[in-house]
Design a protein that fits this description.
It comes from Streptomyces xanthophaeus. Pfam families: Hydrolase. InterPro entries: HAD-like_hydrolase_domain (IPR051828), HAD-like_sf (IPR036412), HAD-SF_hydro_IA (IPR006439), HAD_sf (IPR023214). By secondary structure, the chain is of the alpha/beta class. Helices cover 40% and strands 13% of the residues. The strands form 2 sheets. The protein has a 6-stranded parallel β-sheet, with helices on both faces. It has a two-stranded antiparallel ribbon with strand order 2-3. Mean pLDDT is 91; it is low at 236-240.
Length: 240
């Protein structure tokens, strides 16, 4: 009897595999920006969630100067919403920090998980809404060679949750969507987008934002290797 191939495992990047450190909420808080920051990291976090829900995160931008301007305006809006100072200098300082690849770190469970998935025989891909400088971050953290395919929205012209970016990744992997698990931290962009494209979505909820999420959900990659070996996904209690 021929065994079905193991599913391909596709990952989001930011807040799934890696994060800015300090993360955005701390970066814009008073503790980091001083008097020009927002009152607390939690205020910033809630402001960023609201901006994300409205779809107002910065778009892809290849030109570095335009990218800096866009992120400065984004951070200035976040500071205002969080009750902080309406400070262009503070927002510019935060934007310069956020756009420096050296200021990103991997979550500690990422490399062991990717290596274990690879050793088990899974195809791996990364699908991210990001500018091309994501490749600098991936290279700095020895991630590039761990993926069979890397698909970045700014390079292919489609952003998640549009189905085209998921379909393109499947074609490159030569796998049907039903053979793919997609792991990301956004309910709309990652979970809904992957499901609508015919994949098996899995929410990675590292900061316990969505404890009542009705679908498959994990808070770390410690259980991921065993979980994705079989489709459809089914979560044991200890994986929640």
């Amino acid at each position: 009897m021929t065994r079905a191939p193991l599913p391909a495992v596709l990952f989001d990047a930011a807040d799934t595999l890696l994060e800015l450190t300090p993360a955005f909420p701390e970066l814009l808080s008073t503790s980091w920006l001083g008097a020009e920051g927002a009152p607390s990291a939690q205020d910033v976090r809630e402001a960023l969630w609201a901006i994300g829900a409205e779809g107002h995160w910065p778009d892809d931008e290849a030109d570095p100067a335009a990218r800096l301007t866009m992120w400065t305006e984004f951070f200035q809006d976040a500071l205002r919403r969080a009750g902080g100072a309406d400070s262009h200098p503070a927002a510019l300082r935060a934007a310069r920090y956020a756009l420096d690849p050296a200021n990103y770190r991997l979550y500690p469970d990422v490399l062991p998980c990717l290596d274990a998935l690879r050793a088990a025989g899974h195809q791996l891909a990364l699908v991210s809404n990001f500018d091309g400088w994501l490749r600098e971050i991936l290279a700095a953290h020895r991630l590039t060679d761990r993926f069979d395919e890397i698909v970045i929205s700014s390079e292919v012209g489609f952003e998640k949750p549009r189905p085209e970016i998921f379909d393109l990744t499947c074609r490159r992997l030569r796998r049907p969507p039903g053979d793919c698990v997609f792991i990301g931290d956004s309910l709309v962009v990652d979970v809904d987008g992957a499901r609508d494209a015919g994949m098996h979505p899995l929410l990675i909820d590292r900061y316990a934002r969505f404890p009542d999420h009705p679908g498959p959900r994990i808070t770390s990659f410690e259980t991921l290797v065993d979980l994705v070996a079989h489709l459809p996904l089914a979560l044991p209690e200890d994986a929640r």
